[in-house]
Amino acid sequence: MKLLLTSTGITNKTIENKFIEMVGKQPEEMIVAYIPTAVNVARPTDKRWIINNLIGLDKMKIGKIDLLDFSAIPQEIWLPRLKQADVIMVGGGNPYHLIYSMKKAGLDKVLKELLEEKVYVGCSAGSVILGKDIVTTAPKKYCEEIPEFEGDKALEYIDFSIRPHFYNPDRPQYTDETTQELTNNFQSTFYAIDDNSAVVIDDDQVNVISEGKWKKFEPITK
Known about the structure:
The protein is α/β, with parallel strands linked by helices. It is built from seven helices and ten strands. The longest helix is centred in the first third of the chain and has 12 residues, at 48-59.
């Protein structure tokens, strides 16, 4: 699999260049399927990050951008559209709602097969759900509309967790101390990345590219 896991999409030239390299096409030849589903129950009123993600793609002169909320349409509509895309980009918002919606629609059952030929770009929640656990500071009470969802297990495509928006001025609670506490609580390796960094997974190779700040956290056992 080729995974590009970010906090908020393609924000700088380093990430952009890696993205183009991973896809293996020029931007004007690409079809990007953008999934905004996680935003549906996200708490902030201002959801401008979705617009910013799309503006970033537009500035790259992506050939076609397909806005695709799979939770709103049947599988016979969304699956062919994902199959024709070169890139599946999953936007941020509420990770519990996102993974619940994926399981309800059946996307969790076909995504890994789709990613044998496509590049996955995660933005915030879209990155978090590929890890071992859903890790968020948002209490699960904000997901009362999905009582069937139990536990914190994510898709486990990767054997570590992502802490997006690390060191961001608008997220002062995301510090070394709180991230180490999460790492210890979940007993999982964490890659904490700011909005100018990305974790790149190319088959079994894991690397971080950055024009900002990032840090790898390992659990401390007492």
